[in-house]
Specification:
247 residues, alpha/beta, seven-stranded parallel β-sheet, 8 helices, binds 2-phosphoglycolic acid
């Protein structure tokens, strides 16, 4: 596990974007694993900028996203498909047919989770997966649990995640309570993983993720077992590591 600390959000975003840009340049038909949330927005802005500057070509790139809310699709501006279209796909030369987000409106969610897992396999697996992290250590929608979740599955969101998401919705009743999410096992099969985090609220969980015990109570701690993980944080998110590990 490699931990890189940057001075601010901009520098964190640029470093993460550089890894994804390098992947696209080295393997133009690569499979990128992508994430939603406020953290990756800056990373996507850099990728868009480098596409516009003629540095990156996404025409052969394929993508798979981590998760989607059950009941939402791209017609909802709170869906993760909408987020990806607006924050990245609409601004680069990617073929939308090559972009994949779980279908939150699938009539049979169990069948959708199986389809998504099989899809990732049929693409040959994920070359590099981007992750954010929840304040409680969740990655994708894998919440603190009794056991590590395996494959893509339907998730009942925890109260803390529902509360954290509420800011994006008109009322509490509108906040989705369920999601389709890649499992920890799916994520761990990515050949390379990049986790980004910024802000003081993420400081304790970054310390736990990197130096705490490997436990389903901190889903991101499973990453300690992966051979190629880079965690990129800003100064605020690095604070607990700096305090406890002496820099
Ligand atoms: P955030 O969410 O990027 O909005 O902080 C991260 C997450 O919950 O995975």
């Amino acid at each position: 596990m490699k931990l890189i600390h940057c001075k601010d959000y901009q520098e964190m975003s640029k470093k993460a974007a550089e890894i994804f840009a390098a992947q696209v340049i080295l393997k133009p038909d690569c499979v990128l694993g992508l994430a939603t949330g406020s953290t990756p927005v800056g990373t996507y802005e850099h990728l868009i900028e480098w596409y516009k500057a003629g540095i990156l070509d996404f025409s052969q790139v394929k993508t798979v996203n981590l998760d989607e809310y059950v009941g939402l699709d791209e017609t909802s501006d709170q869906s993760y498909r909408y987020f990806m279209n607006h924050n990245l796909f609409d601004h680069i030369n990617i073929d939308k047919a090559n972009t994949n987000v779980p279908n939150g409106k699938a009539p049979d969610i169990a069948a959708e989770t199986d389809r998504y897992e099989a899809l990732i396999k049929s693409l040959g697996g994920i070359d590099v997966q981007l992750l954010g992290i929840g304040n409680n250590g969740h990655i994708a929608f894998n919440e603190p649990h009794d056991a590590f979740d395996g494959r893509t599955h339907e998730v009942q969101l925890t109260e803390s995640t529902i509360q954290a998401n509420a800011r994006f919705f008109a009322s509490m009743d509108d906040v989705p309570k369920r999601a389709v999410s890649m499992g920890i096992g799916t994520i761990m099969q990515a050949r390379k993983i990049v986790l980004i985090a910024n802000g003081p609220k993420k400081a304790d969980i970054i310390y736990e993720t990197c130096f705490g015990p490997i436990t389903p109570n901190v889903p991101a701690s499973a990453l300690q077992l992966h051979p190629d993980v880079t965690i990129i944080v800003d100064e605020d998110a690095y604070a607990a590591v700096a305090a406890k590990c002496g820099k």
